[in-house]
What does this fold into?
Amino acid sequence: MIPWLSDLWGGGALAIEPASPRDAAKLAQLHGASFHRGWGEGEFEQMLAERNTLVHRLRQGRKTIGFAVSRMAADEAEILSIAVDAKHRGRGLSRNLLLTHLGHLAGRGVRTVFLEVEENNHPARRLYERAGFSVAGRRERYYKQPGGEQLNAVLMRRDLS
Ligand SMILES: CC(C)(COP(=O)(O)OP(=O)(O)OC[C@H]1O[C@@H](n2cnc3c(N)ncnc32)[C@H](O)[C@@H]1OP(=O)(O)O)[C@@H](O)C(=O)NCCC(=O)NCCS
It folds into this structure.
């Protein structure tokens, strides 16, 4: 557990820690509130049971308010998802979550991390750029919105060393 600030906003100490299967329902709820195609509780349960998947939760006091998920293969990993509860955004919390997550990936032998992000997702792109990721490619019309709109993705990478 890594508490790094306490009670600044009256909500209890902040901590980033490995998620457990008991977190699946809460993580699915957070994911569903943050993305058009939410992952279900069963999908989180499965990921939390897989050895090649790393999941961290961001907790304030007793509440889980964010998460980061990545999948590892040999010395590479892909960040599959990261989100912070909308009520807690804009406070820089995702930065510590991401950097801690990357530190654990490095500890597992990962040397290169990739991710895809919607081109106009400015908070996420800023988060990744500030965490040392750079643009490695672009995928046209990669994300399909419920209304039929198609959005471009940017592929980003960062070397961990
Ligand atoms: C992306 C996300 C995790 C960022 O979490 P957060 O804790 O609110 O992030 P921060 O407060 O550190 O903000 C990140 C950066 O974006 C900037 N930012 C915030 N809103 C912005 C906006 N509307 N336009 C441009 N930049 C913005 C912040 O100023 C900050 O940059 P800075 O460090 O230079 O000040 C959060 O917005 C989220 O959960 N979004 C929904 C899920 C999602 O899109 N995940 C990423 C999928 S790839």
Summary: Strands lie at 2-3, 14-18, 53-60, 63-73, 76-84, 112-118, 134-144, 150-159.
